[in-house]
Amino acid sequence: MISSRVYNFVHMERLNIATLIGESTEYDKKVMLEERRPKSWCKSISAFANGIGGCLVFGIADNGDVVGLENAKRDSEVISEIVKTHMNPIPNINMRFYTTDDNKTLLILDVQAGNETPYYYEDHGALLTFMRIGNESVPVTPAKLKELVMKGSNKSYDSLPSSYSFNNLAFTKLKSVYKQRTTNTFEDTDYESFGIIDLNDNLTNAGALLADESPVRHSRVFCTRWNGLDKAGGLIDAIDDEEYSGSLITLLQESLGFVRRNSKKAWRKTGDGRIEYPEYPETAVLEGIVNAIIHRDYLEIGSEVHIDMFDDRLEIYSPGGMFDGSRVQDLDLMNVPSKRRNPVLADIFNRLKYMDRRGSGFKKILTDYKNQNNFKENLKPVFNSGFGSFTLTLFNLNYGIPELNGTQEERQDAVQVTVQVGTQGGTQRRQDTVQVAVQDTVQVGTQDGTQNVHQDVHQGVHQGRQDGRQDRRQDGRQDGRQEEEPQKIVNVSLSEILEYCKTPKSIKEILEFCGVKSRTTFIKNHLAPLISEGKLRMTIPDKPNSKNQKYVS
């Protein structure tokens, strides 16, 4: 048990630490100056100068106790001499003293973020440079060293000449999207002004990334719609997955399309219109994917952008943390300054009207969520970054059973559920509109159908689907269009499946009964709808991915 005297002392000194470091988010502390082991503290100076700056405080123990220095003035002179002889280049450092209430003297080094990176520590002829990971100063990785060298040379990866030939690549996607979004024609002179080629007509890395058939192999996006709340195996791991490559514009458009076809939007009629309830706000998704593609670290060869969709959330991962080394979770997200790792790409996407130069992407994501009718504070997007990664988590606003505001009579109005169904190539969409009679609540299920619709609406869903199909067929005949017939199961009707499942059957048994080999397609197109309509139920509903799962009608 801590006595009140000790507690008050510790509490006071913790407050003093915050006062000492000021606005710095990075700091390190040393109980004393180790003259014979300068690397033990010079590595912190190197890491601070290579990153966002920080404070190094001498006279504080690891446990936070303030012990002070016996001769702080002499120690400051020793530090100054060691920095001059061991650091190259010499970082910008301010030294100051701080005296506590009980006359203990601390020595504080304010290390500024440097522009002449990397900042090396010279150790017996070897050049070592460091970076911050968490509260430690560690040697930089090869990719980080390249980035520091480019930063110190006032260059960026996307502005450097690539190893590919401009004459061997086409940019039709860039030209067409530029025309579509700006009404301007892409001229030959724009290749240089956009930064696709440099002053010597060399294709830049930005140009290589924007070519129709981009030769940069690690510029890819992996998209997966997982079955459930995590990536754990079970009946089926994933119900949709794609790997996209090519121009960055193609990556963006295809990724947006993947999210759209794996998410839905509900709406409720009101007296003068309707209220919409999207799972994921469109602007937030766009900003998140653009941020991942444009600001990722392309020096990380073995990693790609990943978009993982679960029942309750969407996660967007990109290689490389914040460009200045800060942690996004430590920042005021509504006022994050614009610092770009790839300024050429950012400028091009600004010209294409996909983003702006003000660094307002985080603010747009948060604002778009807050403006939704079904937003709750616990569903606020989460931003997280480390040294080599950045992850944005967008929560499904319709996960669970959302309560619809209004009177009992208003809640009995219709809710339209729009299901976007992708073709094999992912380029066409069909929308099935379902009118659902609602009592108190509506739950919009995920595409895999494992998330149950409220029991009170099962019959309304089924009847609405039948009525909707009849209406569309009638409209198709009037318009002279041929309606696409729904996909059937080979040689087996749905009623026969339900009859077969009167006793619990495993997915393997059902597939064998139907004579179907493609489990993924069967579950997605046939089994999941039967579950969502309440015609089939799982024997272990609390564990949909259980290996012992069976289905019964």
Describe the 3D structure.
The chain is an alpha+beta fold. Among the domains are: 4-140, 2-Layer Sandwich (Methyltransferase, Cobalt-precorrin-4 Transmethylase, Domain 2); 156-216, no CATH class; 491-553, Orthogonal Bundle (Arc Repressor Mutant, subunit A), CATH 1.10.10. 32% of the residues lie in helices and 20% in strands. The chain contains 16 helices and 20 strands. It has helices spanning 4-21, 39-50, 72-86, 142-152, 172-182, 190-193, 205-210, 248-261, 282-295, 343-351, 361-370, 408-411, 458-479, 494-500, 507-514, 519-532; strands spanning 27-30, 54-58, 87-88, 93-99, 105-111, 120-123, 126-133, 136-139, 220-226, 238-245, 265-270, 273-278, 305-309, 313-319, 382-385, 389-395, 414-422, 429-437, 537-538, 551-552. The strands form five sheets. The protein has a six-stranded mixed β-sheet with strand order 10-9-13-14-16-15. A four-stranded mixed β-sheet has the order 1-2-5-4. Strands 3-6-7-8 form a four-stranded antiparallel β-sheet. Strand 15 and strand 16 form a beta hairpin. Helix 8 runs antiparallel to helix 9. It is globular, with a radius of gyration of 30 Å. Residues 1-16 and 402-489 have low confidence and may be disordered.
